[in-house]
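Key result, reporting period 2: structure in, sequence out.
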């Protein structure tokens, strides 16, 4: 079920972003356990499949980070809506990674966390990197309309497979950052054709969380690719009522996890 969120005040949104960015910079990169003790709820709910549940589990993960020589995290885009904050980052953690982190805040503390991580692919079909492109949040007055547009696209095209509706959602230019798909309507069409020709099943089945702020809309969904269960983390940029750019991370959902919370 999609969380029903109201728009947070600008001040609260900035406070929420600062708290989450502090967790990444101080709690994880600097291994500042006091920051975690003060700002993460004791009953912190973890959805990362390999990290244990609770604040104690997060502290144990910090111990692991320290044992392997640390981690580097460079946030690129940060969105806030209601009690949710999404961070898209470059990470050095056993190699170059691209990460989407989603946090839920409650009573001034970080209460829940989801994420999806993948290797940073240098050579992409479009020639774009997995993280480059605009990052400035604009058009705050269009947040609700942009959110509705993106959710319509996800429902019509990705959930229900109505490829004929693609052109109505995409701008004349559509910059693609998925490493396997080219730019524009042509790139998406070529990718879908490849899947059909090779009998590779693909589809989204449920949207779980959405974070919209101005010209950016993030959608967390589940579905399947080639018969395997997948977590889909998609970030869209909207301009003049059309989707003009897309970033994503797709991560398999494992059969076994370090907790009973699931990835969603």
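The corresponding designed sequence is given below.
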């Amino acid at each position: 079920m999609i969380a029903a969120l109201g728009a947070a005040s600008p001040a609260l949104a900035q406070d929420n972003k600062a708290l989450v960015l502090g967790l990444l910079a101080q709690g994880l990169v600097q291994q500042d356990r006091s920051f975690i003790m003060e700002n993460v709820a004791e009953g912190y709910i973890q959805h990362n499949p390999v990290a244990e549940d609770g604040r104690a589990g997060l502290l144990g993960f910090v111990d692991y980070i320290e044992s392997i020589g640390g981690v580097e995290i460079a946030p690129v885009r940060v969105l806030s809506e209601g009690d949710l904050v999404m961070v898209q980052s470059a990470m050095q953690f056993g190699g170059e990674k691209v990460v989407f982190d989603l946090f839920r805040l409650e009573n001034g503390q970080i209460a829940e966390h989801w994420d999806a991580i993948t290797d940073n692919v240098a050579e992409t079909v479009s020639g774009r990197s997995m993280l480059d492109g605009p990052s400035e949040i604009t058009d705050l007055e269009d947040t609700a309309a942009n959110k509705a547009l993106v959710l319509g696209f996800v429902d019509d095209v990705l959930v229900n497979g109505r490829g004929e509706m693609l052109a109505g959602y995409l701008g004349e230019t559509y910059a693609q950052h998925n490493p396997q798909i080219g730019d524009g309507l042509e790139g998406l069409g070529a990718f879908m054709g490849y899947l059909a020709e090779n009998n590779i099943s693909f589809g989204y089945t449920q949207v779980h969380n959405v974070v919209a702020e101005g010209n950016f809309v993030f959608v967390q969904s589940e579905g399947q690719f080639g018969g395997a269960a997948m977590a889909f983390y998609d970030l869209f940029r909207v301009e003049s009522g059309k989707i003009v750019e897309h970033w994503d991370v797709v991560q398999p959902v494992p059969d076994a996890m370090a907790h009973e919370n699931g990835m969603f």
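The beta strands are 40-46, 72-81, 84-92, 96-106, 109-119, 170-176, 202-213, 216-225, 228-239, 242-252. The first strand starts at residue 40 and ends at 46. This case is discussed further under Risks and Mitigation.
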